[in-house]
Amino acid sequence: MLGTAFAVVIAKQLYGGLGHNPFNPAMIGYVVLLISFPVQMTSWLPSYEIAAQVPTFSDVLQMIFTGHTAAGGDMASLRLGIDGVSQATPLDTFKTSLHAGHSVQQVLQLPVYGGVLAGLGWQWVNIAWLAGGLFLLWQKAIRWHIPVSFLVSLGLCATLGWLFSPQSLASPQMHLFSGATMLGAFFILTDPVTASTTNRGA
């Protein structure tokens, strides 16, 4: 509620409402939450597939609000058996592991990837965001220029790098379907106020 209130009242309405805010309210709300609650915003329960113990829904709620499960377990006990999964995204894990001297094939075998290209669960999240973005395009709520330009540019740059050095750079599919690529392309870059209003980007 704090992030939403700050985004609407301070980042949008204070500047005169819709059409007058100089910054993306959603991003301002996120930054406020990140600064106000850094530990809560950056601590995550391990993925179901790699968790030593699988928490129930009530355990997750209690962990969020009290820091402990009903049985007295804490975040450290839920992470038992997991080694080295503390990065923000699969791409960050990929970069860190490559700098540590691992090959691309070794990196993709890490638990955070679970044998899939974009990281455990990330490809499904991005496919869902892509479906939502395509729905917005179909409804004509957003124009195609910004998301297509972003995705094509990212895909081309990733492809060029990967073609020259496939043993040290992530594939284009990994760049497109991991992290928050589709969220950024369809929901952040197309913000009706802070995005470009012309086809040329002016």
TrEMBL record:
What are the record's GO terms for cellular component?
plasma membrane
Membrane-spanning residues = 26-45, 112-138, 144-164, 176-195
- Domain of life, per lineage: Bacteria
Q: Name one Pfam family in it.
A: NQR2_RnfD_RnfE
InterPro entries with a match to the protein in the record: NqrB/RnfD, RnfD_bac
Output the GO biological process annotations, alphabetical, semicolon-separated: electron transport chain; transmembrane transport
| Keywords recorded for this protein, A-Z | Electron transport, Flavoprotein, FMN, Membrane, Phosphoprotein, Translocase, Transmembrane, Transmembrane helix, Transport
Report which residue ranges the record marks as coiled coil: none
Spell out the NCBIfam families in the cross-references: rnfD
Question: Protein name, please?
Answer: Electron transport complex protein RnfD
- Species of origin: Klebsiella variicola
